Amino acid sequence: MMEKLLLPVLLGTNRKERNSVHPAKWLVGEMEKRAEIETRLFDVRDFALPQDDYGQGLKNLFPEWRDTIIKADGLVIVTPEYNHGYPGSLKAVLDLLLREYIHKAVAFVSVSAGPWGGTRVIEAMVPMVRELGLAVTFSDLNFPKVQNTFDAEGKLLDPAAEKRAKDLLDELVWLSSTLKWGRANVASKFHQKAD
Ligand SMILES: Cc1cc2nc3c(=O)[nH]c(=O)nc-3n(C[C@H](O)[C@H](O)[C@H](O)COP(=O)(O)O)c2cc1C
Q1: CA nearest ligand 1 atom 1, residue
Q2: 117: CA distance to ligand 1 center in Å?
Q3: Rounded to 10 degrees, what is the CA torsion of 145, 146, 149, 150?
């Protein structure tokens, strides 16, 4: 059997009453059902970032994140849309690393209370993750009216999300497997070896 793909999920908001926690945890459950995926949830809340410094110089303060991304084949980013952009807390966590992301896949899950499902935050993130060296899937998973899609305990109320999540994961698996093969077989000065 093919070696599992390591595809961590990053929950991108630390807001107190965040609804994004529900799709993030639910998607991790869906990913855990798939034999070809190994995953774990990272939460920006768990990163005690200093107020007086920023960026890659801090990465050794967060060894679990650093080492997981070094080994990872891709990443799922779960983000709410805040004023058509992404939370600063999410950007600060992503900016802890750089070379570690190169030629790995990323898929987006966007969350909103309104009808547009956070489509605009994904458009805002694509040029940013490109600079990180990540390759973006062309499928997204949007959760409009998230407050009606999950109950207060995080139970999914809209079964249509299952098919949309499957489609996203199918593409993420394809892209991350292809890039994994490429990193192993096609030389690039950017590839960092896992220790
Ligand atoms: C600072 C802030 C800005 C927001 N801006 C938008 C927005 O631009 N578009 C939108 O659809 N929802 C916006 N929302 C509402 C979110 O869609 C809503 O909070 C939703 O539940 C997802 O975010 P959450 O995980 O913080 O709950 C905003 C919420 C906050 C706190």
Answers
A1: 82
A2: 10
A3: -150
